[in-house]
Amino acid sequence: MNFLRNFFEKKLGPHFHEGGKWHKYWPAYEAFYTFLFLPAEKSSEGVHVHDAMNLKRLMSMVIIALIPPFLFGMFNTGYQHFLALGQQADLWQCMAYGASKLLPLVLVSYAVGLSIEFAFCVAKGHPVSEGYLVTGLLIPLVLPADIPLWMVALAVAFAVIFAKEVFGGTGMNILNVALTARAFLFFAYPSYMSGNIWVSGVPAEVNARSGATLLAQAADSEFLGHFRAVNGVGYENTFLSAFLGLVPGSIGETSALACLIGGLFLVGTGVASWRIIVSVFAGAYLTGLLFNALGWNAYMRLPAHYHLVMGGLAFGAVYMATDPVSAAQTSIGKWIYGFLIGVMTILIRVVNPAYPEGVMLAILLLNVLAPVIDYFVVQGNVRRRLKRFKTAAHVQ
Q1: Whether residue 137 sits in one domain with residue 29
Q2: For the chain, N or C: smaller number of CB within 10 Å?
Q3: Which value, to the nearest 10 degrees, does the dihedral of the CA atoms of residues 372, 374, 377, 379 take?
Q4: Do 32 and 119 belong to one domain?
Q5: Closest to 344 measured CA to CA, from 363, 320, 362, 365
């Protein structure tokens, strides 16, 4: 390791520092150096705030928290593939097939996204941040396994440029970048992001029987309140199947259990807000109960707790809604922000079933409204303090 550090600092470093022939590309050099080693700069005098949780460590915590849905998504991709074909496969065969689908998506996501970020940072002379390390992993996890790689590259380029860099880069974006990529694909190439396309590597006629997600079945006008069997394997305990994740869907979103494991890690390390996660689930559950009371059709009568494990609600609540940049910042604002995401998710699912996965649009909408929520929360606090101040002054 010392050899590698000496190579970076003594051999490469002088060429990238001030006066070096490659000084223009210093942001790229600095990004690789700080990824491999801690920065050399240390505070030596004066008053400084020391905090162990810098951006690199924060992004590392999120990546660790993504391991459960990442590994389960890899397994479930293979599991659904062999199940649809009626073939027996062990754990490692399922993992191998899933890896053959997921890893190329991750490579394309990182290659395109980091290339664009490096280009922007070199052009502006800014250091490269670690923010895309998480975004580059989130994007493949919210996509179907058979999405063409060129579409992934196009969506990544659109999201990084128009949802991040035009606002100033990491920490300045208004919208969640990963969900922007998914929204771009959903509206630009709807046939690749909806319908019976969620089981990988099977003929179209087989996918028509096996690829319908629980949300797609519930949104069907012929839905009678129970989910049909897939390839002879029925959802006898549909709630448990959805909670565990043994159902068709986006690669990393099917398992609520895996998402909750990651969520506990994020909350325990102080990276994610438990207020947002809890309020998203609360908003979704209470809205589901409201529809249960109305009961105009079978979808409305679907037990409210099913909504919590169907689709990408758990993944969105844990990894997307808690994005510290695009979420609400005040404590009360986080409760309101998360609750409205849960409410809007179920409203979009049930009232407008053309968009069965409502959590994507709900989070993007509340990303836009988050500053407004914080504004009114802060103004409410100011008015209450002014009222107390005037009351105290009047008493004196």
Answers
A1: no
A2: C
A3: -70
A4: no
A5: 362
Q: How many of the other CB atoms lie within 10 Å of CB of 216?
A: 20
Residue with tokens 């010392």: 2
Same domain, 27 and 84: no
Cβ 117 vs Cβ 128: under 8 Å: yes
Distances (CA, A) of 1 to 5, 13, 130, 140: 6, 16, 22, 32
Average pLDDT over residues 28-51: 55
Domain that holds residue 16: 2-36
**12 lies in the same domain as 108:** no
pLDDT in tens, 70-85: 999 999 999 999 988 9
Q: Mind giving me the DSSP string for 13-65? A: HHHHSTTSTTGGGHHHHHHHHHHHS--S----SS-----S--HHHHHHHHHHH
Do residue 151 and residue 20 come from a single domain? no
Q: How many CA atoms lie within 13 A of 385 on its CB side?
A: 6
Is 140 among the domain residues?
Answer: yes
Count up the domains in the chain and report the number. Answer: 2
